[in-house]
Fold this sequence. Notes:
Layout (H helix, E strand, L loop, with lengths): L3 E10 L2 E6 L2 E6 L2 H4 L8 E10 L4 E6 L2 H12 L5 H10 L2 H9 L3 H4 L7 H11 L28 H11 L4 H11 L6 H12 L1
Antiparallel strand pairs: 1-2, 1-4, 2-3, 4-5
Helix pairs in contact: 2-3, 7-8, 7-9, 8-9
Amino acid sequence: MIxxxxxxxxxxxxxxxxxxxxxxxYELLLPMTSFYQLPETGNxxxxxxxxxxxxxxxxxxxxMQKRDRTLFRELIKTNGVGPKLALAILSAMxxxxxxxxIEREELSKLVKIPGVGKKTAERLLVELKGKFKDVKPVxxxxxxxxxxxxQPLDDDPITEAVAALMALGYKGQEAEKMVKRVAxxxxxxxxxxxxxxxxxx
Length: 201
């Protein structure tokens, strides 16, 4: 099991990155809440990881914070929640915000996440309730200072942001509407995704 990786960040294409570890390039899928905290490409990054093995592929998920990986592991233990849905949940909410929503039984917030229907949301409340009693509502995604003011990944950050939201489970038209609703001149792809997800919840 690969538990942690430290290397040079080579590529950033939300929600995927390429990390060079001693000459070996690892492709990792990150929730957007971790993606926002990444350094610029060419810099060193350290991520906690979780490997999902399937018959047809291996998927490596990365997290900037250990508690995010812990929550991811709790989520995929829940019936009906796979790695892709867990990634979408942790992209829409920080670990603190999700935990707080569970303890407050905020069903309406959970069902706004793509792929989380009422039954899945109710199952999450039942199975995870009580595991986060001491959590306070500290939402780092609401803090602009926590999001680096990076340059766009290419000449069209809107297209990149829409593609990233689709990778997280949003339908094409829905993702396009979400991004265009918050689009501003000169804003990076990461900022567009953050604002789009924030407005959806």
